[in-house]
Amino acid sequence: MASVEAAAEHERILREIESTDTNCIGPTLRSVYDGQEHGLFMDKLEGRIRNHDREIEKMCNHHFQGFVDSITELLKVRGEAQKLKVCTMGHDCSRWCRLQQCNIAATIDKLSHCLPGTLWEGAGHQHECLNPRYYPALRTLEQLEHTCLPRASHYRFCTIMAENILVLRTQIRDIAMSDLKDFLESIRKHSDKIGETAMKQAQLQRTLDSALSHQQRTGLSRRPRKEAGQSTEVNGQGGSPVSEQDSGILDVEDEEEEEELPGAQDLVDFSPVYRCLHIYTVLGARDTFESYYRKQRRKQARLVLQPHSNMHETLDGYRMFFNHIVGFFVVEDHVLHTTRGLVNRAYVEELWELALSKTIAALRTHSSYCTDPDLVLDLKNLIVLFADTLQGYGFLVNQLFDMLLEMREQYGEILLKKWSGTFRQILDQDNYSPIPVSMEEEYRCIVGQFPFQDPELEKLPYPKKLPFSAFVPKVYVQVKEFIYACLKFSEDLHLSSTEIDDMIRKSTNLLLTRTLSNCLQYAIKKKNVGLAELVQIIINTTHLEQSCHFLEGFISNITNIPPDTINATKLYGMATFKDARHTAEEEIYTNLNQKIDQFLQLADYDWIAPQAGSQASDYLSDLIAFLCSTFAVFTNLPGKVAQTACMSACKHLSTSLLQLLLEADVRQVSMGALQQFNLDVKECERFARAGPVPGFQGDTLLLAFIDLRQLLDLFTQWDWSTYLADYGRPTCKYLRVNPHTALALLEKMKDTSRKNNVFAQFRKNERDKQKLIDTVVKQLRNLISTQQS
After folding, report:
1. Exocyst complex component EXOC6/Sec15 N-terminal domain: from which residue to which, for each copy (predicted)?
2. How many other CB atoms sit within 10 Å of the CB of residue 617?
3. At what angle do helices 618-633 and 671-689 cross, to 10 degrees?
């Protein structure tokens, strides 16, 4: 019962406190302390205070917008009052205005310190935190903490708000960092799109520069981004420097027909970076933010610089690799130029040096697998575009162009392999016959492909034949195609005309001296190559050799470097074709000798025949007929070649006949067999005397058989006295007869004389002849021993 009365008393006292002026509250409080329940009263009082606080907060929230409107109206009134202050009005009006101004200023000052105004600030910063306007929210918290709350610090709610400011700042920092992480993940996924756009811009800029200058493309790209004045700069003294948009990549469609592409940096909303940078700057943690951003971007750089294992298989693999790298550095370049110190030039250059070394290493590795010259050429153009794009953003790309010069050597080797197959196919498919032309159009078409002029041939009526076969114009055209292919790779490498000319000439020399030379050697030395084919190869190489100065002029025309320039590389094609022609000539000589040997294998002499036949041997007649028909084909050969071939054949025939006579298997030779052999040699001499190849003076060709002739004359005329008496003299009739040869043949004849003439010892003439042979043999042996001593 007592507790109920105490509670009722406390309620009465509280109502009295709420309704009584503060000057009269003393007696009321004394009545509380006179009682025994003052502790319970204090609890009751605390509860009542909390209720009133909630009612006040509800009231403030309810009248928040009206309060804002009132403040706005008051500010307008203050402005009008200031205008009235400077107006030249009457004394009463001026005093009234000053009084009004003072009243308004006092009202504003009091309202700014009142409880509803403080709560409005807190409610406003919470509203900003709900939107992505974090930087203004932090500014509001700062103003609230350092300006507003100290003025109303004696109110309890200010203490609560001060405790929550740190929590709100942490929330803002975490939200901004989350947006930054989303931004980093987004640009990692879409860096290829950014790079693709940047490279398209660079290609478009190159095309425009070329069209405007009317000159050969230089490959230099302009910076494909806005001027620095148009970019956003971190200020730190004002509001957010960028438009408030969600982070991410804007979707942009590929429109090939558009003349102007959006800037690569326009595909990215950088506001999350700027916001996070502002927030960490305001919070005093800018160094932490910079360290985190650079660390994450370094990780992304390492991922970007890891090419796919099958990148070398297609050009798209290389293009994607380059797009990612360009996209990465376009972003970093934009951040470098639109923020103050988030990244600096040293940091970006460090990343670029890392990227450059890894890119070059990857390209060297993957390009080494490529065997298609078209793919290598496309890759070179892509690398040039990649280098020009990044050069437009201020990055040094000299090492890329140095690597392209290395790749050019690889490209040249691939071209040589390709043209080796082309040349072999041309040579294999050629019929090695003069090209027949039946009309003017065909003739003009061929001479349009190959520089050939022959006024005498042009006068002849159609149909007629060109002296060379089809592989001559085909090879000439392919050499020009090779030169064009070399020129394509040398373009846009920032090389001078002299350097390009030198590169093309060196590559062409390799083509002629190594590739084409090997193919010609293969065609000449392969099996089943006939004399007619060898003759045509000699004719063809002669015309190709004569066309070398036209190739010199062709290279000079496309490089604008005169062929007589000092230190200019000369073409070695003439030496190549000369070597091939010499090889073909040697093959002709060898082939002819092999044919002669084949005929000689058919020789079937009866070495003990008592007498000779009436005509030359059949095998030799066939051999002479073959030589006549063969040398008739040599009419189109250069004179010296035909003469050398004819002389070589006659010498080989003479040597082979002598070897046939002196073979160890031939143990006996009768005078009749020697007479038959003499008929065959005379047939050979008639062939030589007839002049199968024009150009020999007198009986020069007969000299090939002079050794045989003198040896046979010595034996058939049995003129040993003259031989032995004149031996060693320059005017000796049998100067070309070697005593060893004479002795060997004489031994064969002595054996024959002994075995075939059983009763020779009973006839005085035969005995005298045998004695003479023995005497001659003895004298020859003495002559030989004298020479040896």
Report:
1. 44-85, 101-199
2. 18
3. 20
